[in-house]
Specification:
It contains eleven helices and 19 strands. It is an alpha/beta fold and 387 residues long. It folds into two domains: 2-135 and 329-378, Rossmann fold; 144-327, Rossmann fold (3-Layer(aba) Sandwich). The protein is globular.
Length: 387
């Protein structure tokens, strides 16, 4: 069976879906692998590195995809009418396509996948269960994003992070607050602490308190009966009541006045990013302060974020850059590629050299969007008339 790895063409994307390391593993299993010329450039992987491990090179996407059985991508295929070439039209009917499909952000695309006859797998929907930890693309990419968010703040913050005692005087440490203590938030806390900052963090999930404190951060949260059920079975934060949001916002507002840097990481799958920092909070912060809004692509946690840009409001710098993992493309591609391999390897029967997918497996049912010309995922099947 042939695995095809095309070059990513969406804006802000530098990652690639397979590295020479994972290509070598696919070939060892019995796959043939083809890579589009230049696919690894954004991750500093030359074409020759893929050839050295046994992959063939294709000069363009059309040639690459013409006879592909499996297509590995980072971002979902570009559709007709979107900004770029119609990638979906190049993928053969019946092909298995694995990518970050963004089904909640682009729900209409599922009908296009079904009509094209592809089996579309949304890797971000892989359940957070023990057996699937090595396939968890959200965790691997969010971990890097949290690290990068702190570095982005460092880049525009005009002061030092750690306390410094010199003959000329003492420099106070930077005060960093992280809003949301999931994978990205915890890495942001750890990174800021390593750089010498005084760190605090908040999250609606009480379980996060121990995790934050274990990294040396101070936990800030309004505790109530509601917070006891603030986490889904998949480990994500739930949307909270208006009363809780109001009380939590008041506590955060008071805390933000004393902060130099704020890292916003809060996301709720399938919904617009919750507002955590409003206009008044931004204006209450000291000139020279920095806000990094990691939720910018989904509306932002800060009301004054300009998605995709770095702006200044009243002396406060607000960073709303897209796709932070792509700014660490080499490592991000390495981890993403391993996640993909760990998902795909169990689906392959080495004896028959064919895919042997257990369609009833909970990992498969949670992540497969379309199959046999239909939308099959339970969360989106209504778009297909409930079929």
């Amino acid at each position: 069976m042939k695995i095809a790895i095309p070059k990513e063409r969406r804006a802000h994307e530098r990652r690639v879906a397979a590295t020479p390391e994972t290509v070598k593993k696919y070939i060892a299993l019995g796959y043939t692998v083809a890579v589009e010329t230049g696919a690894g450039e954004g991750s500093r992987i030359p074409d020759a590195a893929y050839e050295e491990v046994g992959a063939s090179l294709a000069p363009d996407a059309a040639t690459l995809l013409a006879d592909a059985d499996i297509v590995l991508k980072v971002q979902r295929p570009i559709l007709a009418g979107e900004d770029g070439p119609d990638e979906l039209a190049l993928i053969p009917k019946g092909a298995l396509v694995l990518a970050l499909m963004a089904p909640y952000d682009a729900p209409d695309s599922l009908k296009a996948y079904a009509q094209a006859g592809i089996t579309a797998v949304a890797l971000e929907l892989v359940p957070r269960i023990t057996r699937a930890q090595s396939m968890d693309v959200l965790s691997s990419q969010s971990n890097l994003a949290g690290y990068r968010a702190v570095l982005e703040a460092c880049n525009v913050y005009n002061r030092a992070f750690p306390m410094m005692m010199t003959a000329a005087g003492t420099i106070a440490p930077a005060r960093v607050m992280v809003l949301g203590a999931g994978v990205a938030g915890l890495q942001a806390i750890a990174t800021a602490k390593r750089l010498g900052a005084v760190v605090s963090a908040t999250d609606v999930r009480p379980v996060a308190k121990e995790q934050v404190e274990s990294l040396g951060g101070k936990f800030v949260m309004v505790e109530s009966e509601e917070t006891a059920e603030a986490e889904t079975a998949g480990g994500y934060a739930k949307a909270m009541s208006e009363d809780y949001q109001r009380r939590q916002a008041a506590l955060v507002a008071e805390t933000l006045k004393k902060q130099d840097i704020v890292i916003c990481t809060a996301l709720i799958p399938g919904r617009k990013a919750p507002t955590l920092v409003n206009d008044a909070m931004v204006h209450s912060m000291r000139p020279g302060s920095v806000i990094v809004d990691m939720a910018a692509e989904q509306g932002g946690n800060c009301t004054l974020t300009t998605p995709g840009e770095i702006t200044q409001v009243g002396g406060v710098t607000i960073i709303g850059l897209f796709n932070l993992p792509s700014r660490l493309a080499t490592d991000a591609s390495g981890l993403y590629g391993k996640n993909l391999f760990n998902y795909l390897a169990p689906l392959y029967d080495e004896a028959t050299k064919q895919l042997a997918i257990d369609w009833a497996d909970e990992i498969v049912t949670a992540s497969v969007l379309t199959r046999d010309g239909r939308i099959v995922h339970s969360a989106f099947a209504a778009q297909d008339g409930g079929q």
